[in-house]
Amino acid sequence: MEDKIMENQSEERKIIHIDMDAFYASVEQMDNPDLKGKPIAVGGSKLRGVVAAASYEARKFGVKSAMPSSTAARLCPDLIFVRPRFDRYQEISAQIKAIFYEYTDLVEPLSLDEAFLDVTTNKKGFPSATLLAKEIRERIFEEVGLTASAGISINKFTAKIASDVNKPNGQLTVGPDEVEAFLEKLPIERFFGIGKVTASKMKELGVRNGKDLKKKSMTFLTQHFGKQGLHFYNIVRGIHRSQVKPDRIRKSFAVEHTYFSEIYSKRKILEKLEEIAVDLERRMEKRSIAGKCVSIKVKYSDFTTQTRAKTIAEFMWNKADFFPLVEGLLDHLEVEKPVRLLGISLSKLNTEEDEPDRDKQLTLQF
Fold first, then answer.
1. How far apart are alpha carbons 236 and 246 in whole angstroms?
2. Which of 30, 123, 221, 280 has the most CB atoms at less than 10 Å from its CB?
3. Is pTM beyond 0.85 here?
Protein backbone atom coordinates (compact mmCIF):
# COMPACT_ATOMS: atom_id res chain seq x y z
CA MET A 1 0.00 0.00 0.00
CA GLU A 2 2.83 2.38 0.90
CA ASP A 3 4.56 1.78 -2.46
CA LYS A 4 1.33 2.48 -4.37
CA ILE A 5 0.90 5.83 -2.72
CA MET A 6 4.41 6.85 -3.71
CA GLU A 7 3.88 5.65 -7.30
CA ASN A 8 0.64 7.58 -7.74
CA GLN A 9 2.15 11.02 -7.30
CA SER A 10 0.56 13.67 -9.48
CA GLU A 11 2.56 15.31 -12.26
CA GLU A 12 5.19 17.69 -10.96
CA ARG A 13 4.24 21.35 -11.07
CA LYS A 14 6.06 24.63 -10.58
CA ILE A 15 4.60 26.41 -7.55
CA ILE A 16 5.66 29.77 -6.14
CA HIS A 17 4.62 30.89 -2.67
CA ILE A 18 4.92 34.67 -2.29
CA ASP A 19 4.90 35.99 1.27
CA MET A 20 5.12 39.71 1.97
CA ASP A 21 7.63 40.70 4.66
CA ALA A 22 5.93 41.98 7.85
CA PHE A 23 3.16 43.23 5.60
CA TYR A 24 1.00 45.40 7.88
CA ALA A 25 4.01 46.89 9.66
CA SER A 26 5.83 47.48 6.36
CA VAL A 27 2.83 49.31 4.91
CA GLU A 28 2.71 51.57 7.97
CA GLN A 29 6.44 52.31 7.69
CA MET A 30 6.09 53.00 3.97
CA ASP A 31 3.19 55.42 4.50
CA ASN A 32 4.78 57.13 7.49
CA PRO A 33 8.53 57.71 7.04
CA ASP A 34 8.82 58.64 10.73
CA LEU A 35 8.22 54.96 11.54
CA LYS A 36 10.97 53.60 9.30
CA GLY A 37 13.72 51.80 11.19
CA LYS A 38 11.67 51.83 14.41
CA PRO A 39 10.07 48.94 16.30
CA ILE A 40 6.34 49.06 15.62
CA ALA A 41 3.41 46.79 16.37
CA VAL A 42 0.19 46.94 14.39
CA GLY A 43 -2.83 46.33 16.61
CA GLY A 44 -3.54 46.65 20.30
CA SER A 45 -2.08 49.16 22.71
CA LYS A 46 0.33 49.05 25.64
CA LEU A 47 -2.48 47.91 27.94
CA ARG A 48 -4.80 45.70 25.90
CA GLY A 49 -5.32 43.71 22.72
CA VAL A 50 -2.93 41.58 20.69
CA VAL A 51 -0.26 42.28 18.12
CA ALA A 52 -1.43 41.69 14.54
CA ALA A 53 2.00 42.29 13.01
CA ALA A 54 5.43 43.40 14.16
CA SER A 55 8.17 45.14 12.20
CA TYR A 56 11.53 43.38 11.94
CA GLU A 57 12.96 45.99 14.31
CA ALA A 58 10.41 44.86 16.92
CA ARG A 59 10.98 41.18 16.23
CA LYS A 60 14.58 41.54 17.38
CA PHE A 61 13.15 42.05 20.88
CA GLY A 62 10.99 38.94 20.64
CA VAL A 63 7.76 40.72 19.66
CA LYS A 64 5.54 38.41 17.58
CA SER A 65 2.12 38.44 15.99
CA ALA A 66 -0.70 37.11 18.22
CA MET A 67 1.29 38.14 21.30
CA PRO A 68 -0.60 40.09 23.99
CA SER A 69 0.19 43.78 23.57
CA SER A 70 1.15 44.13 27.23
CA THR A 71 3.78 41.40 26.81
CA ALA A 72 5.11 43.06 23.66
CA ALA A 73 5.41 46.40 25.49
CA ARG A 74 7.44 44.76 28.27
CA LEU A 75 9.80 43.11 25.79
CA CYS A 76 10.29 46.32 23.82
CA PRO A 77 9.78 49.49 25.94
CA ASP A 78 10.15 51.73 22.87
CA LEU A 79 7.55 49.78 20.87
CA ILE A 80 5.22 52.03 18.86
CA PHE A 81 1.63 50.77 18.57
CA VAL A 82 -0.24 51.58 15.37
CA ARG A 83 -3.94 50.96 14.80
CA PRO A 84 -4.63 48.60 11.84
CA ARG A 85 -5.90 50.13 8.59
CA PHE A 86 -7.39 47.16 6.78
CA ASP A 87 -8.78 49.26 3.94
CA ARG A 88 -5.23 50.38 3.15
CA TYR A 89 -3.81 46.84 3.44
CA GLN A 90 -6.54 45.61 1.10
CA GLU A 91 -5.69 48.36 -1.40
CA ILE A 92 -1.99 47.43 -1.39
CA SER A 93 -2.83 43.72 -1.57
CA ALA A 94 -4.92 44.33 -4.70
CA GLN A 95 -1.92 46.05 -6.35
CA ILE A 96 0.28 43.07 -5.56
CA LYS A 97 -2.27 40.55 -6.85
CA ALA A 98 -2.58 42.52 -10.08
CA ILE A 99 1.11 41.83 -10.65
CA PHE A 100 0.56 38.10 -10.00
CA TYR A 101 -2.19 37.92 -12.61
CA GLU A 102 0.15 39.31 -15.26
CA TYR A 103 2.09 36.06 -14.97
CA THR A 104 -0.60 33.44 -14.31
CA ASP A 105 -4.31 33.18 -13.64
CA LEU A 106 -3.71 30.29 -11.25
CA VAL A 107 -3.35 32.44 -8.12
CA GLU A 108 -4.66 31.27 -4.74
CA PRO A 109 -4.58 34.06 -2.14
CA LEU A 110 -4.22 32.71 1.40
CA SER A 111 -4.59 36.15 2.98
CA LEU A 112 -3.83 39.76 2.13
CA ASP A 113 -0.09 39.15 2.29
CA GLU A 114 0.54 35.73 0.79
CA ALA A 115 -0.50 33.63 -2.18
CA PHE A 116 0.33 30.52 -4.18
CA LEU A 117 1.02 30.85 -7.90
CA ASP A 118 1.01 27.85 -10.22
CA VAL A 119 3.49 28.78 -12.95
CA THR A 120 3.83 25.36 -14.52
CA THR A 121 2.72 27.39 -17.51
CA ASN A 122 2.80 31.19 -17.55
CA LYS A 123 1.92 34.18 -19.69
CA LYS A 124 5.44 35.58 -19.94
CA GLY A 125 7.12 32.53 -21.43
CA PHE A 126 9.68 32.29 -18.63
CA PRO A 127 11.73 29.04 -18.79
CA SER A 128 12.54 29.22 -15.06
CA ALA A 129 10.19 29.46 -12.06
CA THR A 130 13.14 30.74 -10.02
CA LEU A 131 13.72 33.69 -12.36
CA LEU A 132 9.97 34.27 -12.51
CA ALA A 133 9.76 34.58 -8.71
CA LYS A 134 12.74 36.94 -8.72
CA GLU A 135 11.12 39.22 -11.29
CA ILE A 136 7.79 39.24 -9.43
CA ARG A 137 9.53 40.24 -6.20
CA GLU A 138 11.47 42.98 -7.99
CA ARG A 139 8.28 44.35 -9.51
CA ILE A 140 6.52 44.38 -6.15
CA PHE A 141 9.39 46.41 -4.72
CA GLU A 142 9.60 48.81 -7.66
CA GLU A 143 5.86 49.34 -8.18
CA VAL A 144 4.49 48.99 -4.63
CA GLY A 145 7.49 49.80 -2.46
CA LEU A 146 7.50 46.67 -0.31
CA THR A 147 9.71 43.59 -0.11
CA ALA A 148 8.51 40.01 -0.49
CA SER A 149 10.01 36.58 -0.01
CA ALA A 150 9.36 33.52 -2.13
CA GLY A 151 9.56 29.76 -2.05
CA ILE A 152 9.66 27.77 -5.28
CA SER A 153 9.10 24.03 -5.51
CA ILE A 154 7.03 21.19 -6.98
CA ASN A 155 4.09 21.52 -4.58
CA LYS A 156 2.36 24.01 -2.30
CA PHE A 157 3.57 22.46 0.94
CA THR A 158 7.27 22.62 0.12
CA ALA A 159 7.02 26.04 -1.52
CA LYS A 160 5.37 27.54 1.57
CA ILE A 161 8.08 26.20 3.87
CA ALA A 162 10.81 27.37 1.47
CA SER A 163 9.50 30.95 1.41
CA ASP A 164 10.31 31.32 5.10
CA VAL A 165 13.95 30.20 4.89
CA ASN A 166 15.56 33.36 3.48
CA LYS A 167 13.21 35.99 4.92
CA PRO A 168 13.13 38.92 4.64
CA ASN A 169 13.52 39.87 0.98
CA GLY A 170 14.88 36.52 -0.18
CA GLN A 171 13.85 33.34 -1.92
CA LEU A 172 14.69 29.66 -2.05
CA THR A 173 14.13 27.10 -4.78
CA VAL A 174 13.75 23.45 -3.80
CA GLY A 175 14.01 21.51 -7.04
CA PRO A 176 12.39 18.14 -7.77
CA ASP A 177 15.51 16.18 -6.79
CA GLU A 178 16.05 18.23 -3.61
CA VAL A 179 12.63 18.02 -1.96
CA GLU A 180 13.08 14.92 0.18
CA ALA A 181 16.55 15.91 1.42
CA PHE A 182 15.25 19.41 2.22
CA LEU A 183 12.32 18.01 4.23
CA GLU A 184 14.44 15.41 6.02
CA LYS A 185 16.64 18.14 7.56
CA LEU A 186 13.66 20.25 8.64
CA PRO A 187 12.82 20.42 12.39
CA ILE A 188 9.38 18.95 12.87
CA GLU A 189 7.92 22.22 14.22
CA ARG A 190 8.87 23.92 10.94
CA PHE A 191 6.51 21.68 8.97
CA PHE A 192 3.57 23.79 7.81
CA GLY A 193 0.40 22.61 9.57
CA ILE A 194 2.13 20.96 12.52
CA GLY A 195 1.32 23.04 15.59
CA LYS A 196 2.83 23.05 19.06
CA VAL A 197 0.63 20.25 20.41
CA THR A 198 1.28 17.89 17.49
CA ALA A 199 4.99 18.73 17.45
CA SER A 200 5.21 17.95 21.17
CA LYS A 201 3.47 14.60 20.66
CA MET A 202 5.80 13.76 17.78
CA LYS A 203 8.86 14.51 19.87
CA GLU A 204 7.55 12.19 22.57
CA LEU A 205 7.42 9.51 19.86
CA GLY A 206 11.01 10.22 18.82
CA VAL A 207 10.19 12.38 15.80
CA ARG A 208 12.28 15.55 15.90
CA ASN A 209 12.82 16.23 12.20
CA GLY A 210 11.74 15.12 8.77
CA LYS A 211 14.23 12.26 8.70
CA ASP A 212 12.72 10.81 11.88
CA LEU A 213 9.22 11.24 10.45
CA LYS A 214 10.18 9.45 7.26
CA LYS A 215 11.30 6.39 9.25
CA LYS A 216 7.81 5.91 10.68
CA SER A 217 5.46 3.59 8.85
CA MET A 218 2.03 4.64 7.69
CA THR A 219 0.52 2.22 10.18
CA PHE A 220 2.42 3.86 13.03
CA LEU A 221 1.44 7.37 11.98
CA THR A 222 -2.26 6.62 11.47
CA GLN A 223 -2.31 4.76 14.77
CA HIS A 224 -1.06 7.84 16.61
CA PHE A 225 -2.48 10.67 14.48
CA GLY A 226 -5.54 9.23 12.75
CA LYS A 227 -6.27 10.52 9.25
CA GLN A 228 -3.51 13.11 9.64
CA GLY A 229 -1.04 10.23 9.75
CA LEU A 230 -1.46 9.61 6.01
CA HIS A 231 -0.89 13.31 5.36
CA PHE A 232 2.33 13.26 7.41
CA TYR A 233 3.49 10.10 5.65
CA ASN A 234 3.04 11.74 2.25
CA ILE A 235 4.34 15.26 2.81
CA VAL A 236 7.73 14.17 4.16
CA ARG A 237 8.16 12.28 0.87
CA GLY A 238 7.30 15.36 -1.16
CA ILE A 239 3.81 14.08 -2.00
CA HIS A 240 1.23 16.85 -1.78
CA ARG A 241 -1.51 16.87 -4.41
CA SER A 242 -3.39 20.00 -3.36
CA GLN A 243 -3.82 22.19 -6.43
CA VAL A 244 -3.67 25.99 -6.59
CA LYS A 245 -7.34 27.00 -6.50
CA PRO A 246 -7.95 30.52 -7.79
CA ASP A 247 -11.69 30.36 -7.09
CA ARG A 248 -11.23 29.73 -3.37
CA ILE A 249 -12.65 32.99 -2.00
CA ARG A 250 -13.81 32.94 1.59
CA LYS A 251 -17.06 34.82 2.20
CA SER A 252 -17.19 34.42 5.97
CA PHE A 253 -15.09 33.19 8.88
CA ALA A 254 -16.73 31.45 11.82
CA VAL A 255 -16.02 29.51 14.99
CA GLU A 256 -18.73 27.32 16.51
CA HIS A 257 -18.74 25.11 19.60
CA THR A 258 -21.20 22.34 20.45
CA TYR A 259 -21.76 21.68 24.15
CA PHE A 260 -22.55 18.31 25.68
CA SER A 261 -24.03 19.97 28.77
CA GLU A 262 -26.94 22.26 27.98
CA ILE A 263 -26.60 25.96 28.79
CA TYR A 264 -29.54 27.81 30.31
CA SER A 265 -28.48 31.32 31.37
CA LYS A 266 -27.42 34.35 29.34
CA ARG A 267 -24.52 34.85 31.73
CA LYS A 268 -23.15 31.40 30.88
CA ILE A 269 -23.81 31.96 27.18
CA LEU A 270 -21.81 35.19 27.31
CA GLU A 271 -18.91 33.38 29.01
CA LYS A 272 -18.89 30.75 26.25
CA LEU A 273 -19.16 33.38 23.52
CA GLU A 274 -16.15 35.14 25.01
CA GLU A 275 -14.12 31.92 24.76
CA ILE A 276 -15.22 31.56 21.13
CA ALA A 277 -14.27 35.18 20.45
CA VAL A 278 -10.72 34.57 21.70
CA ASP A 279 -10.41 31.58 19.35
CA LEU A 280 -11.90 33.53 16.43
CA GLU A 281 -9.51 36.43 16.99
CA ARG A 282 -6.52 34.07 17.00
CA ARG A 283 -7.58 32.34 13.78
CA MET A 284 -8.37 35.57 11.93
CA GLU A 285 -5.08 37.14 12.97
CA LYS A 286 -3.20 34.09 11.73
CA ARG A 287 -4.80 34.42 8.28
CA SER A 288 -4.80 38.24 8.12
CA ILE A 289 -8.60 38.26 7.81
CA ALA A 290 -10.95 40.99 9.01
CA GLY A 291 -14.65 41.63 8.49
CA LYS A 292 -17.29 44.35 8.75
CA CYS A 293 -20.27 42.18 9.75
CA VAL A 294 -20.39 40.15 12.97
CA SER A 295 -23.02 37.47 13.57
CA ILE A 296 -23.94 35.21 16.46
CA LYS A 297 -25.60 31.83 16.16
CA VAL A 298 -27.54 30.08 18.91
CA LYS A 299 -28.84 26.53 18.40
CA TYR A 300 -31.20 25.08 21.00
CA SER A 301 -31.71 21.53 22.24
CA ASP A 302 -34.75 21.16 19.95
CA PHE A 303 -32.47 22.03 16.97
CA THR A 304 -34.11 25.39 16.30
CA THR A 305 -31.62 28.16 15.54
CA GLN A 306 -31.51 31.91 16.03
CA THR A 307 -29.02 34.30 14.44
CA ARG A 308 -28.39 38.02 14.78
CA ALA A 309 -25.96 40.22 12.84
CA LYS A 310 -24.53 43.72 12.93
CA THR A 311 -22.54 45.54 10.23
CA ILE A 312 -20.25 48.51 10.82
CA ALA A 313 -18.21 50.72 8.49
CA GLU A 314 -14.72 49.53 9.52
CA PHE A 315 -13.01 46.16 9.37
CA MET A 316 -12.79 44.22 12.63
CA TRP A 317 -10.40 41.42 13.50
CA ASN A 318 -9.69 41.58 17.23
CA LYS A 319 -11.96 40.71 20.10
CA ALA A 320 -11.82 44.21 21.57
CA ASP A 321 -13.55 45.53 18.44
CA PHE A 322 -16.18 42.89 17.70
CA PHE A 323 -17.10 41.44 21.10
CA PRO A 324 -19.04 44.54 22.29
CA LEU A 325 -21.23 44.00 19.20
CA VAL A 326 -21.66 40.34 20.15
CA GLU A 327 -22.85 41.40 23.60
CA GLY A 328 -25.35 43.79 22.03
CA LEU A 329 -26.67 41.08 19.70
CA LEU A 330 -27.12 38.67 22.60
CA ASP A 331 -29.16 41.30 24.47
CA HIS A 332 -31.72 41.16 21.66
CA LEU A 333 -32.21 37.40 21.99
CA GLU A 334 -34.78 35.84 24.28
CA VAL A 335 -33.17 32.64 25.51
CA GLU A 336 -36.04 30.46 26.70
CA LYS A 337 -34.72 26.97 25.81
CA PRO A 338 -31.54 25.03 26.62
CA VAL A 339 -28.64 25.94 24.30
CA ARG A 340 -26.48 23.26 22.65
CA LEU A 341 -24.40 25.25 20.13
CA LEU A 342 -22.95 28.76 19.98
CA GLY A 343 -21.04 30.48 17.22
CA ILE A 344 -19.60 33.80 16.10
CA SER A 345 -18.82 34.67 12.50
CA LEU A 346 -17.42 37.62 10.61
CA SER A 347 -18.39 38.32 7.00
CA LYS A 348 -17.96 41.10 4.41
CA LEU A 349 -14.29 40.20 4.60
CA ASN A 350 -11.21 42.04 3.43
CA THR A 351 -10.33 39.00 1.29
CA GLU A 352 -13.40 39.16 -0.97
CA GLU A 353 -12.70 39.95 -4.62
CA ASP A 354 -13.97 39.06 -8.08
CA GLU A 355 -12.94 35.70 -9.48
CA PRO A 356 -10.26 36.12 -12.16
CA ASP A 357 -10.63 34.88 -15.72
CA ARG A 358 -8.40 32.01 -16.80
CA ASP A 359 -6.41 31.62 -20.03
CA LYS A 360 -4.81 28.60 -21.62
CA GLN A 361 -1.03 28.67 -21.24
CA LEU A 362 2.06 27.00 -22.69
CA THR A 363 4.12 24.33 -20.91
CA LEU A 364 7.73 25.23 -20.01
CA GLN A 365 10.69 23.47 -18.46
CA PHE A 366 11.18 23.72 -14.68
1. 26
2. 280
3. no
